[in-house]
Amino acid sequence: MKAAKFSFFILCLHVVSLVVIVGIPQTCPADSSGSKCGDWAGEFFPSIPKIKYEGPSSKNPLAFKWYNPEEEILGKKMKDWLRFSVAFWHTFRGTGGDPFGAPTKMWPWEDGTNSVAMAKRRMRANFEFIDKLGVDFWCFHDRDIAPDGKTLEEANANLDEVIALAKELQGTKIRPLWGTAQLFMHPRYMHGAATSSELGVYAYAAAQVKKAMEVTHYLGGENYVFWGGREGYQTLLNTDMERELNHMASFFEAAVAYKKKIGYNGTLLIEPKPQEPTKHQYDWDAATTANFLRKYGLLGEFKLNIECNHATLSGHSCHHELETARINGLLGNIDANTGDPQIGWDTDQFMTDIAEATLVMQSVVRNGGIAPGGFNFDAKLRRESTDVEDLFIAHVGGMDTMARGLRNVAKLIEDGSLAELVLNRYQSFDSELGALVEAGKADFDLLEKKAMEWGELQVPSAKQELAEMIFQSVL
Ligand SMILES: [Mn+2]
What family, per the record (predicted)? Predict the structure, then answer.
């Protein structure tokens, strides 16, 4: 597609999402001031009951077949292993628009405006959704839950108004799994936020994070996330990479200091992604981000939010990224989604692959759980899925997939043969010399002496096919 035509579609996408679309029945049409609907407290999902566990034989799309929140698996309730969260931006701001076409979804409660009244009504829909789904957490970006303003003061005031309502609607049980500042949509962030070449943008981003952290703290949010969608470059010809990375580290140091200053105890999380929207993003993957934190002395202040779709974009499996985070003591949270093997970008789909979910849950179980982190459904309906009930079906399917993964890990542990296969592979290190190697006390002179003594070796099989057979047997 020609660049000009492509840009036109992007422009349409932006404009269509803001203008009033007429001719679609509204649950609550806004009056001219927009205030009447802001206070509207009717039912947004009248045809959807509270979702219940009905077991694997159920054919009810609005029931859990595998997720039974109070059931104990491996010594913990399923709800405590899984800590599911609804992502506000996908579920309530997702329009179905893509670079080639206009939005396809206009939920009945939407009036086509980006007003504070509309933001408040949407927030009521969010909490009815959360209640009916039976989860305890939600995640938000500042600019998705409340409209931006002409000034920072106006944006903060809009946010405060919506946050006050969210606090009231949360009650005592619901809280954010995490909050974040959206530092990628506004044109001011085109060169980055913390890594922008413009000092004014760096300052603006700091102010936005300061406010987002304050409101996350106010709502009892358990984590705060940094996703650097524009923290990267398009070409190194015009970029001082070292200076930008130094700036990003300074930004994170200031965030840590501010967190301590306001007495916020939530975990700070960095979410790696290799590219899209920039050609190269600095938080490429778990190992790159761990090295960044190590270089700047920030280990211990941050953990990672691993997103499965981002993992595959960086050329890894989600399991690889989770294990890399885990063995570095950095596994903080999971953005539970998946990509498509035939599509080369971030499709943010609900995970439905039982094998993938089992591998994900294996890392979580090895980590002893991920609280105060959890599973955020950073996942959206396909553009072609346009019924309100699809929002529920997608989440029920995603939750059941992860729950089934957890049940499979319990079966793998009970069976024990896969763990035994792995132990057996390394049994030569369970020896006097092996212990010296693992303690870092076997020098090359000693190893050469042993090598000469042992002569040519019989190296055993890796038993990959057997490992795969055992793994398949629990799915
Ligand atoms: Mn994604």
Answer: Belongs to the xylose isomerase family.
Residue 392 shares a structural domain with residue 462: no
Question: Cis before residue 372, ω within 30 degrees of 0?
Answer: yes
Residue 247 annotated in active site: no
Same-domain pairing of 385 and 463: no
My answer on whether 304 and 406 are in the same domain is yes
How far does the centroid of ligand 1 lie from the alpha carbon of residue 243, in Å?
A: 27
Distance 348 CA to ligand 1 centre (A): 5
* Residue 420, in any domain of the structure: no
Q: Separation of 419 CA from ligand 1 center, angstroms?
A: 32
9 lies in some domain: yes
Distance 302 CA to ligand 1 centre (A): 20
DSSP state, residue 345: S
Are 274 and 232 a contacting pair, CB within 8 Å? no
Per-state percent for the chain, helix, strand, coil, to nearest 5:
45, 10, 40
Q: From 388, 415, 442, give the residue that closes a domain.
A: 415
Closest to 166 measured CA to CA, from 223, 225, 120, 98: 120
| Residues 306, 330 within the same domain | yes
Q: How far is CA 174 from its chain centroid?
A: 18
CATH number, domain at 260? 3.20.20.150
Query: What distance lies between CA 368 and its chain's CA centroid?
Result: 19
State the CB neighbour count (10 A cutoff) for residue 360. Answer: 29
Of residues 14, 90, 141, 280, which has the active-site annotation?
141
Amino acid present at 203: A
Cα 338 from Cα 334, distance rounded (Å): 11
Domain boundary among 383, 415, 447: 415
- pLDDT (tens digit, 0 to 9) for every residue of the chain, 475 residues total? 444 444 444 444 444 443 333 344 445 544 434 444 556 667 899 999 999 999 999 999 999 999 999 999 999 999 999 999 999 999 999 999 999 999 999 999 999 999 999 999 999 999 999 999 999 999 999 999 999 999 999 999 999 999 999 999 999 999 999 999 999 999 999 999 999 999 999 999 999 999 999 999 999 999 999 999 999 999 999 999 999 999 999 999 999 999 999 999 999 999 999 999 999 999 999 999 999 999 999 999 999 999 999 999 999 999 999 999 999 999 999 999 999 999 989 999 999 999 999 999 999 999 999 999 999 999 999 999 999 999 999 999 999 999 999 999 999 999 999 999 999 999 999 999 999 999 999 999 999 999 999 999 999 999 999 999 999 999 9
Look up the domain containing 458 and give its range: 428-473
Q: Is the pTM above the cut of 0.90?
A: yes
Decide the pairing of beta strands 302-307 and 331-335: parallel
